[in-house]
Amino acid sequence: MRFIKPRKYRNACLSILVLFLFFYLIPFFVLITGSLSRNYIFREISYRTLYNKITLNDLTDSAKAISIFNFAINTISNQPDNFFPKDLNQLDIIFEAVGSCDQQSNVIITISGIGGIKGNLQFLYCNDSISHHSVCELFINGKYILFDPYYKVYFINKFNNLASFKDIQNNVTQQIICKNKLPKDYFKFYSKKIPSKLFITNEIPWTKKISREFIAVWEYVGGNYLCPLFNKLYFKLDKTSKLRIVKINKLLLSNTNE
């Protein structure tokens, strides 16, 4: 029987240890490479942490979608009509806690995408070529389900399932789950005569998919220790307001399993 020499065994163990440490330290190296890279990793970790927290007790995609919708409408207030929307990424919209209809919908499809739920943002038109409202759709149980975070509403169809855009157009909804009062002319947005327009999806390029999968494994293996440490170091390098730090502490730095 051939035995591995002690020296080769030590070298093999040392190589594995170096690779293991390198795997754990890559995101921390990125912290000092540049703001674009570290901001991207920070956002990905944050979205994943939020997704895990929000959907912790949910077993189905339908339940997860509703939990993410409720998080959005309870966290983000509607932007006043006389204000022009700020050009912010989805995480900053959560921090600002205010957003337009398309920004709120984008937050929902972004967080949902972390869990593999496909989503898109739809522009709704009236009798002109200008989008008057935006909603989001999430792909659940073989079809796209509509959520409207700005008016805090989604629908149940006559089969007692979450309703799609076409269900609302065809008037086969039997229940409106609404946390707010709808405008009298709300359903004009769903007229068959005026088509909606797909604006954006939560699909990402393959390069970002690889990064997302790496972060998922990294977060899973050492998330309770490494993610909070990464976030604290990130804020030492990123000049942010005290208010934003308070919010990130509340949303992200606590244990994801609490």
Polypeptide structure, described:
With 258 residues, the protein is an alpha+beta fold. It has one domain (17-251): C8orf32 fold, CATH 3.10.620. The protein has eight helices and eight strands, in the order H-H-H-E-H-E-H-E-E-E-E-H-E-E-H-H. The strands form two sheets. Strands 7-6-5-4-3-8 form a six-stranded antiparallel sheet. Strands 1-2 form a two-stranded parallel sheet. Helix 1 (6-30) packs across helix 7 (206-237) and helix 3 packs across helix 5 (101-114). Residues 254-258 have low confidence and may be disordered.
pLDDT < 50 stretches: 254-258
User: How large is the share of residues in beta strands?
Assistant: 15-25%
> How many helices does DSSP assign?
8
CATH topology: C8orf32 fold
The percent range for helix content is 40-55%
Global Rg: 22 Å
Largest sheet: 6 strands, antiparallel
Question: Which shape, going by the Cα principal axes?
Answer: elongated
